[in-house]
């Protein structure tokens, strides 16, 4: 049995294409892997605060010096990190906002990229500690950006996932969603077909 962690980051609950892709992925994955355990964390519903002084204090200060706010921030980071550590498969649903990922997803990443836990520093540079995991990134984009200079999603997420040791990463883009009804339908259909293959 594998554990699948799905991270939703769309600000919209209704009409979200990235959520449509997530639901398609979950349905197809369950059909192909009925014994797997799938958990979903919705960052629009349970928002993760931005990196702040309380979280830095929780990470860096001795436990007996933590304020209540630092204890709470550290507990939240521990929970999110433990979910990631326990997962065999990570699914990130990421609509493109202003050429990049939603700030909610960035906040989640800021909580789980932790020195000594998900990566470590060595004499030869940083080393990711989450080797052996797979990741799928489901994107929804109004225009066509894959492979272009305005795509700040895929290069960033490949780098940050690789930094913590996740190198088996597959991107499934639904692009051109705002270029008319025909383009939207085609993009969603093609993305769902790719999801069926990877599941």
UniProtKB/TrEMBL annotation:
Residues reported in the UniProt entry to bind FMN: 10, 16-18, 96-99
Oxidoreductase found in the keyword field: yes
Keyword line: Flavoprotein, FMN, NAD, Oxidoreductase
One Pfam assignment: Flavodoxin_2
Cofactor(s) listed: FMN
Cofactor note: Binds 1 FMN per subunit.
Enzyme Commission code(s) on record: 1.6.5.-, 1.7.1.17
Single GO term (MF): electron transfer activity
Gene3D superfamilies: 3.40.50.360
Domain Flavodoxin-like fold: 3-195
Catalytic activity: N,N-dimethyl-1,4-phenylenediamine + anthranilate + 2 NAD(+) = 2-(4-dimethylaminophenyl)diazenylbenzoate + 2 NADH + 2 H(+); 2 a quinone + NADH + H(+) = 2 a 1,4-benzosemiquinone + NAD(+)
SUPFAM superfamilies tied to this protein: Flavoproteins
The keyword NAD is assigned to this record: yes
HAMAP family: Azoreductase_type1 (MF_01216)
Recorded family membership: Belongs to the azoreductase type 1 family.
Subunit details: Homodimer.
Function summary: Quinone reductase that provides resistance to thiol-specific stress caused by electrophilic quinones. Also exhibits azoreductase activity. Catalyzes the reductive cleavage of the azo bond in aromatic azo compounds to the corresponding amines.
Name the UniProt record assigns to this protein: FMN dependent NADH:quinone oxidoreductase
Organism: Pseudomonas kuykendallii
Name of the gene: azoR
């Amino acid at each position: 049995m594998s554990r699948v962690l799905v991270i939703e980051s769309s600000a919209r609950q209704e009409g979200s294409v990235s959520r449509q892709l997530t639901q398609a992925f979950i349905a197809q994955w369950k059909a192909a892997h009925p014994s797997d355990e799938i958990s979903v964390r919705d960052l629009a519903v349970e928002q993760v605060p931005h990196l702040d002084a309380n979280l830095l204090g929780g990470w860096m200060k001795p436990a007996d010096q933590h304020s209540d706010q630092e204890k709470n921030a550290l507990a939240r980071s521990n929970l999110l990190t433990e979910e990631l550590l326990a997962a065999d498969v990570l699914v990130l649903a990421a609509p493109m906002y202003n050429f990049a990922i939603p700030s909610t997803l960035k906040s989640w990443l800021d909580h789980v990229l932790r020195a000594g836990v998900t990566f470590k520093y060595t004499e030869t540079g940083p080393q990711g500690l989450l080797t052996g995991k797979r990741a799928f990134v489901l994107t929804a984009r109004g225009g066509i950006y894959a492979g272009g200079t305005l795509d700040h999603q895929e290069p960033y997420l490949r780098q940050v996932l690789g930094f913590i040791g996740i190198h088996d990463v597959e991107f499934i883009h639904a692009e051109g969603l705002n270029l008319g009804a025909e383009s939207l339908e085609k993009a969603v259909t093609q993305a769902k077909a790719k999801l069926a293959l990877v599941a």
